[in-house]
Fold this protein.
Amino acid sequence: MNLPNPLIPGFNPDPSIVRVGEDYYLATSTFEYLPGLPVYHSRDLVTWTHISNVAVRDEQLGVVNAPTNLGVWAPTIRFHDGLFHLIVTDTAGRGTCIFTATDPAGEWSDGVVVDLEGIDPDLAWDEDGTAYITYSGLVLSGPDIGAHRGIEQIVVDVATGEVLEPKRSLWSGDGGMFPEAPHLYHVGEHWYLMVAEGGTERGHSISIARSHSPHGPFTSCPDNPLVTARGTARPVQCTGHGDLVEGPDGQWYVVMLGTRPRGMVRSFSALGRETFISPARWTRDEWLEIDPVELNPRDGFGWSEDFDGPLGPEWMGVRRRPDQVADLTSRPGWLTLTGEGEGMGAFRPVFVGHRQEHQTCEIRAVVDASHGVGGLAVRYDEEFHYEVEAGAGRVTARAVIPGFVRESSVEVGDGQVTLVISSAVPAAKGLGHPSSDMVSLGLIGADGSVRVLEEVDARYLSNEVAASFTGRVFGVYASTGTVSVDRIDYRGDNS
Ligand code: 6LW
């Protein structure tokens, strides 16, 4: 099969996948964004549709006050006894939660909480129905915060979240830092424990061990790590945190996170950690082999949102859902946002955003800021964001990184204005260019051409520089008064 890679582009780390009959469902982490936990569906592993989000109601997650970096980490999606299960760590909120749904495109439950100290929970069932949660023992609170206790396992009652047996320590990789992302599989004669180790940056990898029992003892595979890009010039780096599935063609596959850094010796990943896929196979010795991850991006494409109907599941807000700020009725065919006195530096901005999915792109927003201040922004987090803002008859281009603000503005008069943010490959300097991309901030001038107000190095809005675990998200916002948006046009490519 000619599988696209990235499989799910843009900020989509920690993928977990399940096959039910001919259908595949995949979920990824969302951190401080809401709705939480996108569910993507495919029948062929090639074409994916974002069919729902698990967390669409206040009571499901405690993300409202989650610091950047925390929030919703690393789901596992599984199917058992006619029910879809998604287990995840709400790191700054409820802790470990199990959500269930009969239809993953429909409504997910409010979730039950499991009392465990760790992250990256996996859920697996024995033939007799015993349910195991295998997780990474990173301590998230209390006096031991930051301590790492390796891979651990408990037995639980999935319906109530009750822990039925004391925790056990399991095989924790082959010595790399941060053994995490465990997944347990019963294939043939063996129980396989797959983990990530080496940390989620350039040292990331996947290792495996096996046992005759779900709780070990496990024997490490002699060929570990099965996948890593460390020390290579591969275009896809940081590969690790994988989940295994059997494809429609009978071939096995591992979905995992990876990055597409650009630059020279130091390079920068504008889109954060994305979902990739690679073929895998069982060897004669009943070990798993995983192919190195090949880059195979889909062609560039464009889309437009004209706000004539409800917002699709891909729209996100920061620490609140789009439906909590997006007014689609007071000016039909427009999205109206009402500012709360702060801009993109706010912990909880009035912002509706979308993942950037291509290495380079151009985004245009037709905005009416006659009664307020706001505009179009590209955000990594509240400390790293670039924006073009309209209001009080001016358009202001602004780039913000910690401790620095660069801005310039131009008089345009009141009324409708088209704001533009575009990202482009930088011109080479010597051996190449040390940045991921250059971002231009501007507007469409009276003659219809783009009028650039600022051009800024965009390496600061990358996985390697910003503190958050996310990726670039662009969207529209209001700081004060009301700002209405008639349409957004996006065009991206991977050249
Ligand atoms: C994820 C864990 C990790 O839970 O990053 O560094 C966390 N490792 O596997 C957030 O994606």
Remarks:
- The CA atoms of residues 81 and 335 lie 42 Å apart.
- The first strand starts at residue 16 and ends at 20.
